[in-house]
Amino acid sequence: MSDHRTVSVLGTGIMGAAMARNLARAGHTVRVWNRSRDKAEPLAADGAFVAGTPAEAVQGADVVLTMLYDGPSALDVMRQAAPALRPGAAWAQATTAGVGAIGDLAAFAREHDLHFYDAPVLGTRQPAEAGQLTVLAAGPVETRDLVTPVFDAVATRTVWTGEDGAAGSASRLKLVANSWVIAATTATGEALALAKALGVDPQNFFDLIAGGPLDMGYLRSKAELLLEDRLTPASFAVTTAAKDARLIVEAGALNGVRLDVAAASAERMERAAAQGHADEDMVAAYFASFDEKPAT
Predict the structure, then answer these.
(1) Torsion over CA: 75, 77, 78, 82 (sign)
(2) Which of 16, 94, 234, 243 shows the smallest number of beta carbons within 10 Å?
(3) Residue 295 within a domain
(4) Is residue 152 part of a domain?
(5) 103 and 232 part of one domain
(6) Environment class of 200 (CB within 10 Å of its CB; exposed 0-12, middle 13-18, buried 19+)
(7) What tens digit of pLDDT does each residue of 223-261 get?
(8) 29 and 152 inside one domain
(9) 148 plus 90 within the same structural domain
């Protein structure tokens, strides 16, 4: 089998558009669809076919890649695509869907004779644009040759977590990783908010921890976005982070674990979104510490 595939990308937001471009650059035939067509149209310049409906997008696809808002959104779009899905095709479900939705998605795949791969990705806008994501994947070994060239085009590493996509092992690992990302982002925003309130120069804080065990590149990169007012375009938007935080809390509750930091982070993200920061980078949850937007 050739290493080139016909790939349908359903959802061309921050991540999906970057992945579609890298797929086209790798020589794959790419067909794209997005609920707001204007977000998909620029991909025509990269050689992608821009479809008007999900069904049109998946015609002839060897691999369907979904990168949508959540599990119910992915299921809804795949139901719209159902009349044109090719039996025996692979479905790489890259949406951060949480653990509760995986069963329904896998059941849909079985009903339509699709090889189901639970395949969320780790990374934000910049790694996606550079083709340097990490794919967390679970799915059948015997048909991995269908999806491997697709994963190789969008990522530098694929971490296989199991042979049964329906078990959701990749999505569970993604939630654990995102719990750390969201907690670190929340802590960054709160530290900077406290510095603002106490009249502490943030640089003094960074100098204090420089080179020690409390220092971390992620803290500095997120702080720079805030302090330099580079919150758009978002690498990971406030609304998406709030959704993921809620999925993390839900997963914990279903398994008897109370996740106070994730719950508080979700509330902060939602409050920041209500203040007008919904589409900004998630470190904009900093503003949830204030009744009014302060100068950074």
Answers:
(1) positive
(2) 243
(3) no
(4) yes
(5) no
(6) middle
(7) 999 999 999 999 999 999 999 999 999 999 999 999 999
(8) yes
(9) yes
